From TrEMBL:
<feature type="domain" description="HTH cro/C1-type">
    <location>
        <begin position="15"/>
        <end position="69"/>
    </location>
</feature>
<dbReference type="Pfam" id="PF13560">
    <property type="entry name" value="HTH_31"/>
</dbReference>
<dbReference type="InterPro" id="IPR010982">
    <property type="entry name" value="Lambda_DNA-bd_dom_sf"/>
</dbReference>
<protein>
    <submittedName>
        <fullName>Helix-turn-helix domain-containing protein</fullName>
    </submittedName>
</protein>
<dbReference type="InterPro" id="IPR001387">
    <property type="entry name" value="Cro/C1-type_HTH"/>
</dbReference>
<dbReference type="Pfam" id="PF17765">
    <property type="entry name" value="MLTR_LBD"/>
</dbReference>
<dbReference type="InterPro" id="IPR041413">
    <property type="entry name" value="MLTR_LBD"/>
</dbReference>
Length: 263
């Protein structure tokens, strides 16, 4: 992952790193950025120095995360373009309010907010139904929801289709690593893959459209479909890295159980 600590790397090396990660040729990137392939080559080899506007244009075409775009700008000798605020900061009031509304409106079903490393930022009261019986040490902040899901002392023993759910989460994490190159996520993937799982993934259920999570709770076995909500056109690093994970009842029995649990 390109980080602020790595801004001593030549700007051309960083540009080539992201182009190759996106599996683009210099000609393809040049076409998207509306410059010549020769110019892209000169930027990568250091024969030309990119302007701030050019770095932002190339970053957009390479779909570089905002945090890494700031690192790229610093490596080029420019100030970061995207601010980074804590969720409790005054400029984030509208975002925090929107998150709070989403979490509350989703009750009685569970919903959590996670950051780029899958650490839980917030959650609604129904999350307690999913994490009942988990080891207290896994619930100590910062809570990593992937570790909590797949750890043998976490939710894993109560997930009826652990093999399927585990394969889904690991595939999703692998895709995120491929996009971001994040070393923290790469280390997390190695850790999660090493957790024991005697339940083979197996084929999807006949007629299934998505992979649900089926979890045993005091309210019975519940089935949920998960969705992810992100903010459109984010201009702040924190906002770009937040995601709301919501769990929807996959059947009538789960919906009824949630209503009874809320009472």
């Amino acid at each position: 992952m390109t980080t602020l600590a790595e801004t001593d790397r030549p700007i051309g090396t960083l540009l080539r790193h992201w182009r190759e990660r996106r599996r683009m040729s210099q000609l393809q990137l040049a076409g998207l950025a509306e410059v010549s392939a020769r110019h892209v080559s000169f930027l990568e080899t250091g024969r030309s120095r990119p302007t701030r506007a050019m770095l932002l244009r190339l970053s957009e075409q390479l779909d570089i995360p905002l945090r890494e775009r700031n690192s790229l700008l610093l490596a080029g000798g420019f100030a970061p373009a995207y601010p980074e605020h804590a969720l409790g900061d005054v400029p984030m009031a509208a975002v925090a309010d929107a998150i709070g509304q989403i979490l509350h409106a989703h009750l009685p079903a569970p919903a959590v907010v996670v950051d780029r490393h899958w650490q839980m930022v917030d959650g609604n009261d129904a999350v307690a139904l999913l994490v009942e019986g988990c080891s207290p040490r896994l619930l100590e902040p910062p809570v990593n929801v992937l570790r909590l899901s797949l750890h043998p002392d976490g939710m894993a023993p109560r997930i009826a289709n652990l093999g399927q759910w585990r394969a889904h989460l690991l595939h999703r994490l692998d895709h995120q690593i491929a996009v971001t190159g994040d070393d923290v996520l790469a280390d997390l993937a190695v850790e999660l893959a090493d957790y024991p799982c005697e339940d083979p993934a197996g084929p999807p259920e006949p007629g299934a459209l998505v992979v649900p999570i089926r979890i045993r709770t005091d309210a019975g076995e519940l089935a949920f479909l998960s969705t992810t909500t992100v903010f459109g056109t984010p201009l702040d690093v924190t906002v770009a890295e937040l995601a709301v994970e919501t769990f929807h009842p996959a059947d009538a029995a789960t919906a009824d159980a949630l209503q009874r649990h809320e009472r």
